């Protein structure tokens, strides 16, 4: 660990907005398990009118923002004002009754703009789905590939997460292949986070969740952060196994992100608090809370409880309250 790196939890919104590449990863490592990653769905109308879900997540303690279902070919983050030139035209919008909502649907808003608006490093999911999966399920602009990653980085994404949404058929092997391809193209500076929050339709509690060879393959491919489900979210994933995997992850030079991506982000706050402390005891570096609460995000009070359990009130309230101009 570089002692000159300022811990992520101590950085102001302006400083966070400038974090990129290895500096971002080093700031996370320096925070010693006190980094909250909050995921939101970009094409859901926001939970609260007049406020985009990423803004709400940041206001309740999120350190990093992750955009799910973001399409690099059609940038959009609902709840932010649309850029007029990016608003799609066509009679279908008026016929559907959605015409008046177009200016509020965030057309043309990119991850870079979200970082600029809120002062939180913002990344996106890219999905290494099977090639025969219909476009209606996962559009080209959401799929993992060099072209999509290049567009995402040009649009200001500070990190890329290679994972799969429910039922998409994403496998560990496909994730590892994509990490290797992107690392070979983009070099060592792009933060690549990779793994599975749930089965994504390819695992049915009939075998080990993560094989040692896959863990090592991801490290060799160049993953910086490995995603694993918080024990208690996926059937059969136990704490003793997770502790072993996280020890191996650290020995291989990666960091571990423990994820809650099974709609349990919408459970009672006390469960989130327990998982936060349990996850820390297992050695987690980053802690993810998913988007399946209401309207494409976890309940804000759960983000607050999760963040407070991980960071305490002092650091959480500072993160919530500091001005974007600092």
TrEMBL record:
It holds the Pfam family DUF7916. Residues 9-326 form the DUF7916 domain. InterPro entries: DUF7916 (IPR057238), ThiamineP_synth_sf (IPR036206). It comes from the Bacteria. This is DUF7916 domain-containing protein. It comes from Desmospora activa DSM 45169.
